[in-house]
Each structure stands twice: as C-alpha cells, then as structure tokens.
Amino acid sequence: MSLSFVDRSKLTKNPIAKKLFLLMEQKKTNLCASADLTKAQDLLEFANNIGPEICLLKTHIDILEDFSDEVIHKLTTLSRKHQFLLFEDRKFADIGNTARLQYEKGIFKIASWADIINAHILPGKGIIEGLLQSNGKKEKGLLLLAQMSSQGNLITENYTAKAIEMAHAYEEFVIGFISQEKVSDHPAHLHLTPGVSLQAKSDSLSQSYRTIDDIIFSSQSDIIIVGRSLYMDKDPLKRAKMYRKKGWESYAKRISSNFHSHS
C-alpha cells in the first residue's frame, strides 16, 4: 500500500527523513538535481537557478577545481533560501574508522554541512557505525546503495537484501536507499533512483536511462535523480520544471490509484 509522503513522515525515526518527506509534500517536488559541475560558480548558479524546483541537491564536492569554505557557506545559504536539502554523493566504502575520518575531516568537512550522505555496504556494518560515531547527535541521514543503474554492475539480490537488513538495524540513521525500484516495504524508507531521462536510453559509458513514470509509478521509487539532462541544458530551470511536474504527477497517480483500489 502506497502512503503519502506526509503519512510516511510520521513513521520515520530520523529527523532529516521527516524533514524531506514534508518538504516534498509542501513544495510538491520529488526531484533531486545531481550537480556534477567542476567550477564553484557554475555549481552555485545552477543551485540558485533550479533551487525552487527541487527537494534535494546532490553534490560531488570533491570534483570542484576551486573548492573553498565560502562555496559551502553559499551552498547552505541557497539551500535555506530555496528549501532543499544537501546530499553529498560521496559513496563511502571503507572501514568504519577511515569512513568516519573522510566524513568529518580533510578540506571538505562533509559532516559539517551535508544533510544526507550515502555508503556502499561492502565493508559491512562497521561503515554505518563509523559514520554514526562522527554523526553524533547532529541531524543527518544515510542512504545505502542497494542497486545501481550502470550495466554489468556487480550488485546481487543477496547484496540488496543485506542492505535492507542493515537499514532496519540502524533505522534512526539510515533513511533509505539508492536503488532502481522500491526494495523495502518499510514506509519510512526512501528510495532514490538515478538514470532517469525524458528521452535518452543510454550513454557512451553504459549508463541506462528509464522514464519517470516507470521509476515512480511502476517501480514505486520516491525520488528521481537527474543530472546531465538538467545542468547541460541551455535552460536548466525550464527543464527542471518539466521533470518536477512529471515526477509529481507520477507520485500523485500512485497515491490515488492506491486509494481507488482500496476504496
């Protein structure tokens, strides 16, 4: 049964997940923009431009060629102004202690500004423990990689099942998954799906693309992650509005079809 984001916000134990559920409902958007930009000015202009249309901005902060603390200050200011959360797509994948240091130390100090981070479960539960130690009492959310969209990736069904198991074990910190479809029946778990496009089917690097309706309505995912199709467009805002509208329509259709089938 497909509950609304508002209903699901009441079932999570994580403050960031609650905030995201309510923000999506309030802004009527389940669009996450992936900003794989290498210049700080481009990143900030992009974030300011499409900010009103998104619920999340996904960054790869380590690809910036001119990173500075000022960039983070401006990015967090924009996230408050336009009401979106910051998701650093760091994909932590080391032993717990190293992951913790990568999260809070170095020049990026990810723990100080990112609302949401993600991790591979390859190292085992130690990686969650490590990130959690660093996280302390601050409001943060962790997504686990349960499936990937690139062709020939090595994630098996058993691996996905392990990710779900870990999410249940750490439900106060793990808020959901990066996946190709809904993998967990727990309504508090968010599902974010990359590899969505309005037309392209694949790129030269084995990335496969799917339609929004397929992801949100058929596969029951919650949030679409859109990258190149947005930031490489000559009018990113117009493009973002299209994705937002389609994404929200698919979500609304899912909720209402569920309502009709149970009424």
Jot down its keywords.
8 strands; TIM Barrel; about 15% strand; alpha/beta; about 260 residues; eight-stranded parallel beta barrel
Short description:
The chain is of the alpha/beta class and 263 residues long.
Question: Mind explaining what this structure looks like?
Answer:
With 263 residues, the protein is α/β, with parallel strands linked by helices. It has a single domain (5-262), classed as Aldolase class I (TIM Barrel). The protein is built from 10 helices and 8 strands. It has an 8-stranded parallel barrel, surrounded by 7 helices. Helix 6 (126-135) links the parallel strand 4 (116-119) and strand 5.
CATH homology superfamily = Aldolase class I
Helix content percent band? 40-55%
Main sheet? Answer: 8 strands, parallel, barrel
Strand order of the largest sheet: 1-2-3-4-5-6-7-8
- Succession of helices and strands: HHEHEHEHEHEHEEHEHH
**What number of domains?**
1
How much of the residues is beta strand, in percent?
5-15%
User: What is the third-level CATH name, the topology?
Assistant: TIM Barrel
Topology overview:
Elements (H helix, E strand, L loop, with lengths): L4 H5 L5 H13 L3 E5 L4 H11 L5 E4 L9 H14 L2 E8 L3 H9 L11 E4 L6 H10 L5 E5 L11 H13 L4 E5 L11 E4 L18 H7 L4 E4 L1 H4 L4 H27 L1
Parallel strand pairs: 1-2, 1-8, 2-3, 3-4, 4-5, 5-6, 6-7, 7-8
Helix pairs in contact: 3-4, 5-6, 8-10
